[in-house]
Structure formats: structure tokens, C-alpha cells
């Protein structure tokens, strides 16, 4: 049985579903943007350091504490270029000082602390997931490296609990070995074996929900290594003063190490759940990690989050998504959890494309994206005539003839929880419920991976 068949909120595609949606479809296809000059802004450049075309953002974002930069698909060049430009703007014009990725918490900490000795490319490859390893994202790491050591640094952080790279394991092992060589070597060996055993199960059974025996095998991995992680955490806590002396560069090293090791166990545990459950499990931890970063690591600083739209939108559990031919309710995301706590201190920006090319997540195979159909969010915003169209939804409190589309259900393209490519009209949501702002690009291309 596929994952989606065991999820709650499944909606039949039979007659009842057709009758339910037919008025909405008719409404969506009839929608047109009126008053587009009032509701849609043009962004003129992906890379310019002249921010005149972004000046309209200052009054919108000046009182925000967190800016969430989403994307409906990971492997798109324009998304990384635009996010990089927005991050520079937010840092230089609105005093945002932390960029936190949907990548390993400890990995990003380690990378930023070693920025003085590593190249920008090494920083990128050792801190964030390979889905963003591109020339477009490298531009951001050039900027982070340039700003480190100045009076106005841009701190690199991560909030994911997933294993990102072996460099962090090597880094922590070397640090522990300064106090106890055997402990350091033992940690390196058991973590590498734990990840090997975990991925062996995933490679054998795949990642869908049709193999209950896979869950049992992953539980065996968790049971084998959780005691080792707990023992190491206890060692770190009992020797935290010596370990702090062994890494004088940052007084938070012990805190980061403990949090990272706790997350390793949770990462393995995540594999024991079905698709939707695993998303929600992971997103609860990511939300906790973001709050921890803001309270412990960077108190008082304004933070930018980089992730998929699915992790950042404000009410994801209200989104309907088409998974393997079935319409289901999406999962409760990190964004939904953070929105409940931070409310209007967060500004969530979703990125979408109308047409072009992108590359698949795992194989990087290039695929075409045909122009989005009538009735879609993308087609609607492209009526503005802009190649990069920005809509601010936050200022609109009630519907009128110019903004009615923001308050009605509409379809948009997504890769969802299981797809490798963009699927047109595969999500249905009310824009105002999910986002404070939306950017749609008329045409995109795959990221530049040759560095």
C-alpha cells in the first residue's frame, strides 16, 4: 500500500469530489487580476546590488523578526539567485543578521566557525544539502565569507535534524579527542557505521510506505546506536568544562554538539514513520531548533529562513495536495508551528515558476516545465506582464474586486511529498492563508552545478 493511502484527509476523486470542486474550478479559471498595478510589483533583477526595485519591501518588512524564503521546488537557478539577492538586501537594508538553511544545525555551525580557513565552495558543500550546491547559491557563500570578521557579519545557521555530511562527524570527533582520544575515535566509528546501516535499509527498501519490514529494520538500527549516542552525550555533559577549553573559539560548542547528537537519534527514528508522519515529526524538531537558535545562539537578532514552501507556509495542514493520483491534506509544517507562536512577526514568501526547466532532486535530470494552465496561481500573476512578479498579501485584510483572488482557493504547481518533478495544478489553497508574499517567475532554468 502506498503512503498516501494510509494518510488522513484523503479526498475521493469520484463524483462527490468532482461536484465539490467544480464551482471552485469554474471560479478559479474565471479569475483575472484587476488593479494589477496596485497589487503586483515588478522585480527587475535577480542579481543587482542596486536595490531600487526592492525599495517597496522596506515598509512591509521593517517590523518583522523572521523572513521565510520558500520555493515550490528545490533545483531552480532563479530561486537561489533571487533568495541570495533578497538576503543581501535584508542584511544591508533591514539589519537581518542570520541566514538559516533547511540543513544540518551542527553542520552550519561548524562551517561558519571555519569560514576563515575554508573556501566559499567548501563552506557551501559542507553545510547545506546537495540540492542547493550550485553557482547561484555559491554567490551567497562568497558574501557570507566576505562579511565574516567585519563589524556586520551575516551568520550562517541550520535548523534541520538530518545528517548533512561526514565533515561534522570528523569535526566533533576531533574536538572530543582533544579531551579523550578513545572517545573521539569511538564516536567517529560508530556514527559512520550508524549512518551506513541506516542508509543501507533505505537503499534496500526505498522510501515509500509499502515495506513495513523496513520500519522494523530501522528500529533495529535505532536500538543499536541510541545507547551509544546517549553515553556520548553524558560524557560531553560530564566533561563540558574541559571540552569548552578545547574549543575556545565558541562558547556554544558544547550546546551545539549535544543538540546535534540528540538530533542524530531523531533522524534515525524518522525513518520508522510513514510519509506524512515523518514530515510532521521532522518539522516539529525543525521548529524547535529555530526557536532554540533564536533564543540561545542568536538572541535579539533577526533571522532569515531558507526552505521549501511546504516547510514554511503558515497553514500547511489546510493545503490539499495531489499525491500519486489522490487528493489529501498536507502535513502540519514547521511554518505552521512557528506562525502560531510568532504570528505577525514572521513574513512568509513563497516562490513559484510559470515555465522553463529544472532538474530532478536525486538524479539531476533536466525536465521541461510547460506554461502553467488557466486557473493556476502562476498564470494569474503572469497577467501582470512582469517577468518577475511580486504580490504582497499581508496588507490585504478583506476581499474586494482587486484582490479577490487572494482570498479564494486556487491551484499551483508543486513536487509534493513524493514527486521528483514539478506537477502543475497539484496543490490547492487560499493564498492569503498560506503566504504574506508570493513571487512568480515567468521562465526558469536548472541550477548551474559546474563550479
Automatic annotation (TrEMBL):
Keyword Cell wall biogenesis/degradation: no
Domain of life according to the entry: Bacteria
Stored SUPFAM superfamilies: EreA/ChaN-like (SSF159501)
A Pfam family per the record: Erythro_esteras
Keywords from the named record: Signal
Alphabetical GO biological process terms: response to antibiotic
Leader sequence residues: 1-28
CDD domains xrefs: Ere-like (cd14728)
Keyword Transmembrane helix: no
The protein's name: Erythromycin esterase
Organism: Paenibacillus etheri
